[in-house]
Amino acid sequence: MTTLGTAIIGLGAISGVHLKAIADLELTDLKAVVDIDENRARQVAEEYGCDYYTDYKEMLKRDDIQVVHLCTAHYLHSPMAIDVLRAGKHVLTEKPMAENIASAQKMLQAAVENPNVQLGVIFQNRYNAPSQRMKQYVESGELGKLICMKGIVTWNRTAAYYETEWKGKWATEGGGVLINQSIHTVDLLQWLGGEISSVKGSISTDSLEGVIEVEDSAHAYIEFKNGATAIFYATNAYGRNSPVEVELVFEQGTLLQRGDSLYLDQDGKLTTLEEPVVNTLGEKSYWGMSHELQIRDYYEHLLAGKPFWIDGPEGFNGFRVVMDIYESSRTGQKIVYNGAEVAL
C-alpha cells in the first residue's frame, strides 16, 4: 500500500492526537518531529521511532517527507504553512488557520501559488456523528425549513492555562475563547446554516480581567441568506468544562446536541439519534474523537489525487466569522456580508 512520509511541527498538547492518528493509519509513515525544545523532540522521536529536528526548515529539505502537520502556536501557522507549501509539501494545519485576517490571506495566497500541493485545515468536529447527522437533516429537508440555531460553549480556563507564553495575547493567540476553544462551534453553525448575510457580536473579559489581554466570553447573532438565524455564546468563565450544546429548529422538529449525544424532538416525542462514544484518545475528552477521521480523510484525498474538502478557502469560512465577531465588538456595528466583500 502506498504511504506518505509525514512530519509534525510542534509537540504541545494537541500533537498527541495527531501522533496517535498517524501511528494508527496505514497511509502514513512518520519520518520526523520538530520542536524548539530539543529534549521534548528527542523523547517523542524515540517513542515513535523517527528523526527529530529543532529547526523545521532543515526538515523541509527532506525529499521523503510529503506531508507536514502544524501543531504550533496560532501566530506560527501562516509563516510555517507558507514555507511548507513553497517547499512542495502538503500541509494540514490545526485551527485556527492564523491569528488574524492578513496572515490567513497570505496563507491562502501561498496555496494558490503552489497548486501541486494541498492546504488542509483541521475542523474535526464536522466529522462527529451528531454533526454529520445534523448536516444530513439540513440538506435533505426531511424536517422542513431550518428556522434557527444556537451554539453554546461553557468551559473553564484558569490563569494557569495562560502561563504558556503565546496564549492570552492578541499578537500571538489572536484572541481568547472565541478563536481558540469555541471556533469549532462557530464553524459548525456556519457550515450548517449556509451563506451568511450578517454577523453582530461582542466580547468581554469577565473572570480573567487583568490576567489576559483577550476575551474569556463572547456572544453573537448571525443571520443567514436563507432566512435562518443563529445565536452563539461561549465562555471560559464557567466552573467546569460542560458539554457543548447545539440546537437546530426546523419547521417539523428540533435537533438537540449535547456533547456526543443527539436527540430529535418531534411531536412531543424525544428520540435518541446518536449516543456518546468511548474516548480512546488519551487526551482531553472535549476535543472529540474525530481528529483521526479527518486526518485519514485528508490522506485518502491526497493519495487519490483529489482536492480535500476542508481546504484553505473552506477553513477560512469559520475563521472569518470569528474575525467578524471581533470586528463587530470593536466597532459596535453589524458586519454585513456582500459576496466576497465585507462592509460595515
Write up what this structure looks like.
This protein has 344 residues and is an alpha/beta fold. The chain has two domains: 4-121, NAD(P)-binding Rossmann-like Domain (Rossmann fold); 126-276 and 311-343, 2-Layer Sandwich (Dihydrodipicolinate Reductase, domain 2). The protein is 31% helix and 26% strand. It contains nine helices and 16 strands. The protein has a ten-stranded mixed beta sheet with strand order 14-13-12-11-7-10-9-8-15-16. Strands 3-2-1-4-5-6 form a six-stranded parallel beta sheet, with helices on both faces. α4 runs parallel beside α5 (101-113), α6 (129-140) runs parallel beside α7 and α7 packs across α9 (312-331). The chain is globular and about 60 Å long. Mean pLDDT is 95; it is low at 283-287.
Compact summary:
By secondary structure, this protein is α/β, with parallel strands linked by helices.
Question: How would you summarize the topology of this molecule?
Answer:
Layout: E1 4-9, H1 15-24, E2 28-34, H2 38-48, E3 51-53, H3 56-59, E4 67-70, H4 74-86, E5 90-93, H5 101-113, E6 119-121, H6 129-140, E7 146-154, H7 183-193, E8 196-204, E9 217-224, E10 229-235, E11 245-250, E12 253-258, E13 261-266, E14 269-274, H8 291-304, H9 312-331, E15 335-338, E16 341-343
Parallel strand pairs: 1-2, 1-4, 2-3, 4-5, 5-6, 7-10
Antiparallel strand pairs: 7-11, 8-9, 8-15, 9-10, 11-12, 12-13, 13-14, 15-16
Helix pairs in contact: 1-8, 4-5, 5-9, 6-7, 7-9
Coarse shape = globular
What's the arrangement of strands in the largest beta sheet?
14-13-12-11-7-10-9-8-15-16
Task: Please outline the major beta sheet.
Answer: 10 strands, mixed
Residue stretches low in confidence (pLDDT < 50, at least 5 long) are: 283-287
CATH class of the largest domain: Alpha Beta
The whole-angstrom Rg is 20 Å
Overall average pLDDT: 95
Please estimate the helix content: 25-40%
How large a portion of the residues is in β-strands, by DSSP E? Answer: 25-35%
Tally of separate helices: 9
At the fourth level of CATH, the homologous superfamily of the largest domain is: Dihydrodipicolinate Reductase, domain 2
From the helix content, strand content and strand pairing, which structural class follows?
Answer: alpha/beta
The domain count comes to 2
Number of DSSP strands?
16
